[in-house]
Amino acid sequence: MNGLICILLFLISFSAFGQRRWIDFAWDENRDVYSYEVELYSVDEKGKNSLVFKEKFNESKWSKQVVPGQYNFRMRGFDKRDVPGQWSEFSFIDVRLPAPIYINPLPSDNLEGIEELEEKIFFEWKNVEGAKFYYVEVWNDKVHKKVYTKDNKHEFTIPVAQKYEWRVVALINKDDPLPEKEGNGVKFFLNGGALKAPFVEHKVEDGKFKFSWTKPKYTTDFEYQLMKLGLNHKWTVFDRNGYFNKEKLEYDLEKFQGEFRFALRAKTDGRASSPYSFIEFNVKGKDIVIHAKKTQNSHNLKKDNPFFYSLGLELTYLDYYGESRERDTIVETRFKGQRYFLEGSYQDFYSLWKHRVGWYLTDVNNVDYSIRLSEIHYLVGQTKVYARIPFEFSGGVFYKEDLFIVGDRYTNNLSFERVGTTGPVGMIAPFYRYNRYFDFGAEAKLFWHAISLETPNDEKLNQSLSFYNKLYVTYKHKEEETYTFFIGHYINSISYKANTDEDSVAKEGTDNLAESTGFSVGMRVNKFF
Asked: 434: left (phi > 0), else alpha (psi -120 to 50), else beta?
């Protein structure tokens, strides 16, 4: 009967608390002892023992799963006559609850505060089944706050701009002993509210443009960027410094001309950087016009219009020159056509890498023949300033379709074939900012036709080059829209060796050449985001 009662008590305890943990005991064997008996008692808040396990066995070790709590354990041995010895002294066992799972803050978190001195921070964790209390503690070298709570979250008000550690311990009784906190804390950093934006002033003196500004409280250094408005009305960095510790800066007026934006923010350790203070101005000769002075609320410098797309139309006039594969017939014919295109561009502000994607369709025709040719370009590059002139240098890959004029080996008839090639493409694009409304620029692209993707009879492509040069002027109609007018010149040259098969009209190994030159005039509309 007693054994049955013990089992029932265990089952009730397990059902009440839900989580069990293993406890293990082992001891030295004694040759005079043939069996062992153990008893395990739970200890309540008043220190009273209640038997939960009693077991007899022959091994010198014992393991059992128990719910978290405080226990007393004792044992005794039996000789070969099954006569019991004396009970051992009680051994006290403190079985802990499992550690809570942290929700906020997590290890190495950087919490963003908004206050100047102190911030209210919520500390949160997952509930532990069986826990009646939680001990919450947050500390560093200067601060130590703690509390007992029954909830799974608590709010502390602590100073900003400091490193902290915190921990939470699940308890059954409020006066349960606590584990050592050293090495058990979750570390995080609490940033303070953003610094105030510096107030920027300017003046022209002794042929120099001079900036000066205030130093907000807590500031340790400044970050500034001087940007120039250039191609397609995009801002590019002319000068910058991320750790500037002075409160003034000056530039020689003779060294830069054009439209500029000066952006400055204050920085410090442990607090959010200030918003940016901007001055937009134009330098033309010795004349300076200030367009705007403002502060941007975002803590990150937002680049104006990092993405734009262009829709355009070109009127294209092409002269094609081809050599027959068999009869060395020289053929000249004139095509004209229209070229439609869609271009997209994105420039990452911090790395300054600019990505360009273009899709082009060209409809060309003469009296006897018409065809649609397509191109796809992808280029990535950066803008560099040389002799006060910005140059965009880009490289990438392309796919391009061209027109071959083919001579028949059996007749004097001509046929036209589409040829697809791919390879690397490079571009250089200098530009000049005339004023707030007009840009002048040029663009030179070089295509290397390295791989043939489609030829009339799988011919082997020789190394071939193509060029496309363009001059343009861009007019700023409004902030989100500009118009570009341009003229272009093409030089396209592709050659390959003929490949003979059953259906081929070519002689094996004959060099064949397809050249085209032409010019175009066009317009495109640039839309910015």
From this structure: alpha
Question: Distance (Å, rounded) from C-alpha 482 to C-alpha 310?
Answer: 9
What separation in angstroms does the CA of 448 have from each of 320, 375, 424, 477, 515? 19, 14, 6, 36, 14
Tell me which long-range contacts 244-247 makes (C-beta under 8 A, separation of at least 24).
245/220, 245/221, 246/222, 247/212, 247/213, 247/214, 247/215, 247/222
pLDDT digit string, tens, across residues 470-497: 999 988 877 677 888 889 888 877 776 6
Q: Say if strands 109-112 and 186-191 run parallel, antiparallel, or are unpaired.
A: parallel
* Three-class secondary structure of residue 511 per DSSP: strand
Q: Give bridge partners of residue 89 from the DSSP assignment.
A: none
**How far is CA 318 from its chain centroid?**
44
Distance CA 179, CA 135 (A): 11
Tokens at residue 215, please?
A: 């130093």
Average pLDDT over residues 110-133: 86
Closest CA to 53 of 111, 105, 83, 10: 10
Which domains are delineated in the chain? 2-95 (2.60.40.10), 102-191 (2.60.40.10), 200-296 (2.60.40.10), 307-528 (2.40.128.100)
Place of tokens 């590019």: 236
**340, 372 contact by CB (below 8 A):** no
Question: What confidence category does residue 340 fall into, taking pLDDT thresholds of 50, 70 and 90?
Answer: confident
Higher pLDDT, 237 or 75: 75
- Predicted local distance difference test score (pLDDT) of residue 399: 93
Question: Which string of b and e fits 458-485 if b means at least 16 CB within 10 Å?
Answer: ebebeebebebebebebebeeeeebebe
The whole-angstrom separation of Cα 490 and Cα 337 is 13
Please give the C-alpha separations between residue 287 and each of 51, 68, 207, 225, 258, in angstroms, as whole numbers.
96, 81, 11, 22, 11
Report yes or no: 141 and 182 within 8 Å, Cβ to Cβ: no
Distance between CA atoms of residues 143 and 518, nearest Å: 77
Closest alpha carbon to 150 in 170, 165, 167:
170
DSSP classification of residue 63: E
Contacts of 398 by beta carbon, 8 Å cutoff, 6+ apart? 375, 376, 377, 378, 422, 423, 424, 425, 447
Residue 10 has a pLDDT of: 33
The residue among 85, 163, 389 whose CA lies nearest residue 255 is 389
Please give, one letter per residue, the 3-state secondary structure of 386-451.
Answer: ECCEEEEEEEEEEEEEEEEEEECCCCCCEEEEEEEEEEEEEEEEEEEECCCCEEEEEEEEEEEECE
Q: Which of 92, 58, 91 is nearest to 77 (CA)?
A: 58
